[in-house]
Structure formats: structure tokens, C-alpha cells
Amino acid sequence: MSVRSAAVVLLLLQVVHGSSAAAALETSYPVPTALPPHSWDSVGQKLFIHGCKKDGLFNSSELALAAKYSLMTVEKGQGLELPGFADDKMAAIARQWKEARRAAKLPEGWALFYLNAHFDWPFFAIHTQMEDHPIWAVQANNAVTGDSCLQHGDPSFPQPTEGMDLFNHSRDDVRAAFVNACVNATKHGFDGCFIDSAAPATGSALTGYAARCNSSVEAVRAVADGKVKVMAELQEAVGDAKLIVAKDSYEGGSEQQVNTIFPLDTFCSCYTCNWTSAHNPQFRTAQTTYADVCQTQILEAIKLGKRGQVVLLHGEVNHALIGDDAALAADFEFALAAFLVAASDSSFFGYSNGWYYSGTEWHDEYDHKLGAPSGAAVQGTGAANMTWFREFHSGTTVRLDVLHKRAVIEWAH
């Protein structure tokens, strides 16, 4: 059912049957009618690769590696060192990758087009529309000076010194242009769109947003509400057979708008944390710990899988461990074990060092026999218990202790 149809039915249910029936529909979730190629034969059949390459297309060795993955996201930095819009350069590398999979007689790969729902990155074609329509940007100073609210994004990618404009999704025309950018990508070889910064600002993030822009909380709340709308509009525009991926917080958030969730970019891993078996620090600025975040990501992935929604779980190399090969290997095994605990038919795993394809490597574990799970993961006694066990038909078993950051995968041979 499309988002628009669901809204109509919801109204009819409210009129005919009252609020209880309407509430039941409100908790419905978009589910894809097709999935990227996958199987339980090995972890290598349930992977995605996410990144970009500054200088253009893959060389032969890079292409051979990338072609092993059945699902690929092309990031904003694709072809940064080359002229032209990112849109065209992203389509070119996706086409190269799909052709390589076809040549290798592999199932048709699925490619995802990156867009950022918050930042107007200047590499994209939509940036020219933003320049032509300055009012499309979130306004600073209570919209009385004509200045837009500027902000900096991921420092891994070049950006204007003064910062970038922000999409004002409270405007219908901005949302229409944003949706069109994704739809256009699906007409040029992409099988959906990966939407970064999909989570709307709430709570202290909302008030902080208003303060940075010297604007009212009401004005930025309207932008946040518009972001929720645009996610639903994206899914409706591309249809149920394509993926709209919301990069959300670690606990999700866009499940009722889109069919695919990416619950933060550090699945049971972290950039520079010191989470160990003896230490469980606070997660960034949140009032929770790294272990709690990992446990929440696992539970969210399990829920998504039960509904048939797609979840992309991406572990990130911990930069604090660079140079310690044993610690890096243990960190990877922990993230992989967490994935195996949470995995469903519609879940995919990725692991990399940063957001360029050069940070992705093929781990030996990807080739080990797996087999379908013998059943759901078994959680230790009590809802708050952070220990897990799961067995697969090959005989592979997984034991995970989230609180103490311990994992043991015993592979079948």
C-alpha cells in the first residue's frame, strides 16, 4: 500500500470504525517487494559495500573486490577530483560495477544513490537548484536578514569554508526537488537511495539547531517535520520494489516512512571509543553507554527483520586501535558476531575504515560456511540481559556478551 493510500484508508477507518482500527494501521510499516541478491551460504552472500573513489572508476583489482558484494552504496565523494556533478559520476561507477557482476555471471547487483537530507553538498546537481532558489535553504536570524543558516558536515569531504546550506523540508518545493533527485537516479541505474541525516532533530538537538540558526524552535521543528514527510514521499515515489534507506539514530526512527533502516554508521563498533571488557563509557554526548547502543541496534535489527524490512548494519574500524592488529581483529569479530545474532533474511552487513572504497577489505570469515539460522537468537534471561547465543545449520555457533564486549564465533568446517 502506498503512503497516500494508507492515509486515505486511515481516514476512512477513523470515520467508520473509530480510533482503535486507525491506530492499528498507523503502526504499519513499508516492506520491500524485492531484495538484493543474498543467501545464507556464507556471510559473503549477505554483505554490502558503502563508499566512493575520489579519482573515478575502479581499477581492475578494486573492481574484482567490489563485484563480490551484491549491494553497493555510492557515496557523495565519488569522482571528487573529476569535473561534473556527483550524480553522473556515481551512475558511472555503479554501471561499471553492475557490468562486472554480469561478466562474472553473478546475480544483478543493486546500487544505492547517496543523498543527504540535511546538507546541501555542493557536488550534486540539486545544489544548482538551491543556488537558484535561496529561499529553499533554512534561514538564519528568524528569516529577516536574507541569510541562510550554514553548517559544516563530515570533514572527510571538502566543503565551503563558511559551511553549507541546509534543506528546508518544510517547503513543498524543496521536498519535491529532493524526491526528484532520487527518482532521477533510479532512472539511471540505481535501485534506490541512501538518505544520510534522515533522523529529524528532536529534544536538545532541536533547540540547539534553533540556537545555531538564531531562529525559533517552531521554525526548525517545521523543518524536522518536513524531513519526516520527505522520507515517506521518497518511498512512495520510487515504489515498494526499490529501497529507501534512512540513516537513522542507533534506535532507528524512520520505520513507518521507509522500507530500509541504517541504524547509525557504527554498528556495535565506534570510531575512537575505549569500550572494552572492563570499561563501558558514555556514548558520545548521549545519556547512554556504548554497550546500550549496541544492544539497542541488535534489538532494532531483529524487529526490522521480523517485519520483513531491510536493515543495513555497518561496522566501523575503531581508529583508536590502529596499529594493534589483534585488537582490530577482535573488534571486527565482535561486530560480525553481533550481526549474526541480529541477522534476518533481509539484513546485510558492511565493515570498513572510513567512507572511501579503499577502506573496505574482504575478511576470511566472509567465506566460511554459515547456513540458515536454526532459529532466532537466544537472549539470556531477562529483557535487560546482554548475552546472546545463536546456531546455524552448518554448525556455526555465535556467543555474544554485549556488556563486556566479548564474542566467540565457532565456524563449521
Separation, N- and C-terminal Cα atoms: 45 Å
Helix-strand makeup class:
alpha/beta
Can you summarize the main beta sheet? 8 strands, parallel
Instruction: Supply Rg.
Output: 21 Å
Task: Count the DSSP helices.
Answer: 10
In the predicted model, the low-confidence regions spanning at least 5 consecutive residues are 1-17, 19-25
Strand order of the largest sheet: 1-2-3-4-5-6-7-8
Order of helices and strands: HHEHEHEHHEHHEEHEHEEEEE
The shape, in one word, is globular
- Assign a percent range to the helix content: 25-40%
Give average pLDDT, whole number: 93
Percentage of β-strand residues: 5-15%
In total, how many beta strands? 12
Question: What does this entry look like structurally?
Answer:
There is one protein chain. The chain is an alpha/beta fold. 33% of the residues lie in helices and 15% in strands. It has 10 helices and 12 strands. It has helices at 3-16, 19-26, 60-66, 86-103, 126-132, 172-186, 203-213, 217-238, 290-307, 325-342; strands at 48-51, 71-74, 110-116, 192-196, 243-248, 260-263, 310-316, 347-352, 378-379, 387-391, 397-401, 406-410. Strands 1-2-3-4-5-6-7-8 form an 8-stranded parallel beta sheet, with helices on one face. Helix 1 runs antiparallel to helix 2 (19-26), helix 6 (172-186) runs parallel beside helix 8 and helix 9 packs parallel to helix 10 (325-342). The protein is globular. The N and C termini lie far apart (45 Å).
